[in-house]
Every structure is written in structure tokens, then in C-alpha cells.
Design brief:
By secondary structure, the chain is of the alpha/beta class. It folds into 3 domains: 116 residues, Rossmann fold (3-Layer(aba) Sandwich), CATH 3.40.50; 125 residues, Calcium-transporting ATPase, cytoplasmic domain N (3-Layer(aba) Sandwich), CATH 3.40.1110.10; 57 residues. The longest helix has 35 residues. It has 12 helices and 12 strands. It has a 6-stranded parallel β-sheet with strand order 9-8-1-10-11-12, with helices on both faces. Helices cover 47% and strands 21% of the residues.
Amino acid sequence: RAFAFDKTGTLTEGRPVVTMARSINCTTGDVCALCDDVLALAAAVERRSAHPLAGAVVSAATQRGIADVYPAAEDVETLAGRGLQGRINGKLVTVGSHSLFEAEHPHTAELCRMVDQVEAQGQTAMLLCDGDQVRGFIAVADEIRPSSRAVVRELRELGQTTVMLTGDNAVVAEAIGKEAGVDSVRAGLLPDDKVAAIQALRRQIGPVAMVGDGINDTPALAAATVGIAMGGAGSAQALETADLALMADDLTQLPFALRLARFTRRVIGQNVVISMGVKLLFVVLALFGATSLWLAVLADVGMLMLVTLNGLRPRRFA
């Protein structure tokens, strides 16, 4: 009755790129040494992570030739759904979401304004703190999949409710959700929050399919009626937990799978009716002595062949 989608790597391409690295002390309005230092410091922490956003930061630093300015961070800790922190040269460096920094790392109104502008464009902002000093932010864009809007529209035509569940903040999530055309968006979710959202959907609507690709999606995939992993880019944990994997990372397979499932269910129902109908008919005929053993055997064999041939119809479904 409903499809719940993760954002990064599911509705979006999952190939984020850094569009901006900005130091709060930058005075040029363009890339400067201070901005490069923000990117290099973030890359030293993010190289320990397998998250797509981390890969984008490391890739951008590598392209600018600053990936090795700082040694790789030690004692790296993942802040579930909020960011990453580790020690570089003995100092704690944190890379995280705007909400994390609003709660734990006070920063200027001007930095808030710049971050809000970036997020309003559907980009993800990661702020950087070096010890107790907020240094700046990095903006990352992840393009929506070309097929996402068409797939969401087709699922709605098939009577499905579509929901996006993401750990991103509400501004970014709403921008992506509007572009994809989903019915509703739930943002700022930690992995346990996604599980709670899936359970709420199951109570309110009925069976729910969850589509995701990352480690953070694993609990939600397990909680859904059907867990669907994006196989090509999905994590090993997501693939192991999911009931179904889209090996081509092609969302257009979702409406096809739904139509095929409905068709298969109809075929199963037809086969049950045919087999039970034939058996009941010959039970009644036998009670009145209107049939013979050989005729009953032939009818049973014929019925078996009929349901077998009917059961092969889904193989030709298109």
C-alpha cells in the first residue's frame, strides 16, 4: 500500500559532488587558502568513512591536491545520522550537520545564513569544527535520478502512497521531495526513527515496502513488509537484510515488480479456484455415481496440466 524511499543513493544518484568549501574567515568570496584548509581538514576525517558524502569530500580534496595535507584522523566515531568526528594531531575535529552544530557548536548568524541558502537549493551542508573553533562548511550536491519522478508518479497511479525518509534536514529534504514528487517527507531521522516511521506507516496504511541502499537503512529494511535494496550501489548490510535487490539500480523496476506481483497473485488465485472447483465437482459426481475412477483420474491430470500452464504465465509478463 505504500513505498518508503531513502534519499541519498535511492531517489538521488548517490554520486554527490562538492560544490563549495567555505571558511568563515574567507574575505575573497571565492576559493582561498582558508577554504582549501577547511576541505583538507574535513577530508582527513572523512577518509575513514564509507558514506557517499565522505567520498565526495575526499574526492574533491584529491582533485585539488590537498588530500594529504593532514594525516588521517584517529579514533574516528560516527555520530549516527549527524556526522563524524576524529582526532587529528591530538585535536578533536567534527564534521556534521547544521542541526548538530546548532545543538553543540555555537556559530555565527552569518554562517547560519550561508548554510540556509545552500540547503534551500537542495544541497547538503556539512559544518566543520576544529577543537572548539567552528571553521566553516562544505556544500555537497547529489542530483536526483532522472527516473525518480516518473517512478513515483507511476507508483501513485498504481494506488501506492510514497514517502521519503531521510536523515537530512527538513529544508534539503523538502526540496528533493518536491522535485521527486513524493506524497510526504520525513526529515532529520536517525536509523531508529526510520524504523518508527515504517511501523507507523504499517499501522496507518498497511503493507509497506522500504527502498534503501545504506547501512543506516538496514533497520528500516528489516522493519518493512518488503525490504528492497539498491543492489549496485548498496552496502553489504543492506543487501543482506533486504528481501529483494535491484541489481541494476534502476527504480523503473519497482512499478514492474508491483504489477508482476499483482499478476502472479491473480494467477495463484485462479489456480486455487480451478483445482478446488474440479475436485469438488468430481466429489459431487461421485456421490451420485455419475463418474468413474478413470474419468476422475483423467480430470485430475488435466486439471494439473491446466494449473501448471497457467502458472507459467508470469514468465511472459511484460
